[in-house]
Design a protein that fits this description.
The complex is a heterodimer of chains A (about 200) and B (about 180).
Chain A (H helix, E strand, L loop, with lengths): L2 H13 L4 H17 L6 H16 L6 E5 L2 E4 H24 L8 H18 L10 H6 L1 H21 L1 H11 L5 H23 L2
Antiparallel strand pairs in A: 1-2
Helix pairs in contact in A: 1-4, 1-9, 2-4, 2-9, 3-4
Chain B lengths: L1 H6 L2 H21 L14 H7 L4 H19 L6 H23 L5 H23 L9 H25 L1 H6 L4
Helix pairs in contact in B: 2-3, 2-4, 3-4, 3-7, 4-5, 5-6, 6-7
Classes of the chains: A mainly alpha (about 200), B mainly alpha (about 180).
Amino acid sequence: MSRFLVGLLLIPAFVFNTSLPVRILQTVLVIGYSLIRKKKFRLGPNLILLAGVTAMNLLSPVGEVLFRIAAFPITRIALEQGLMRALLFIGLVYISRSSISASIPLPGKGGALVARTLYYFERIINFAPPSEEKGVVYTLTHLPGRLDEILFFCSEEGSGQGAGEKHERGRAAASDGFYGSAERFYAIFLLAVFWLGGAYSLFFA
Amino acid sequence: MQMKAADLSRREQIAILGGLCIFLAVVEFMIPKPVPFMRIGIANIPLLIALSLFRDRDVWVLALLKIAGQGIINGTIFSYIILFSGAGTAASVLVMLLLRRLCGGMISLVGISVMGALAGNGVQIFMATLIIFGDAALLIAPPFLLIGVISGTVIGLFSDAFVARSRWVRAAGRTE
């Protein structure tokens, strides 16, 4: 079973889950999976994203008022929706990082195009601007320039990979399999928890 | 750097814009909306960029990637909502391609974007009338279409300015 297949099987159980506690558990576990695969994890940006998306959702109050910050009501449904959305994004990022490699062996021309699309999606997520150009404010005030940078970044990644594509394709296809038994065991554990959690949220929560 | 964008095959350029579609669909999903049917449509930006670069067939391929990507991100890929999304995008792309073909340089990306948004929203209202709500769906038509015009204008203005100034679009346009 390849890493890509594991990622593919994780996504529906993650996206269709409607329970916040289950989603928190799934996100933590998928970050653990990413760490096992020796991918980078930074707490700060994820916390900022979590707080930012949740705060934006709180701007449209829905449901029971839990408490107030000054005169602003913090409502239950808006809070849950915000956390669900932010965790969905964070979790999808780590599922992508863990399961998408430079050349996923999908069959046919269409499969190859889908694989490349997913590859570039993963590259865009990993795009890191120069340190002086970081931050939401800079991005929002320089949107066209930032978009151009992202497209060039993807082009460089794509052409760099295309240079040794034949050699890399074989290597990447081979690397799509699992390395050790620990990773294999964790992936099976992850799939079981994800699907049981998803089923629990659909039928019992 | 510009050479790298020009060196890429058309297929790679479609894949890059497809990846961007999925990313923007994620961003759009995280933005809270005051009304459930409101859509900003930022995932349409790559389609508008593609209009200035690709042949009709390539734009359709990108539209398919967008529909599938949005379905996965929003969790609607196995539900009937994907029909709404698919039909809306298909109508929008059809109208945008027809306008490009018929009007050529006489219409800007803003006009194309607004007409595309109206076509997409119109088809979605039609489907809602047909499948779920019946004639009651017509009640949401005015705000739905108004939101489409506003978001289509904003997205069109952004895309128009981007395509005019982007070095990537210039470089990618040199690919045969």
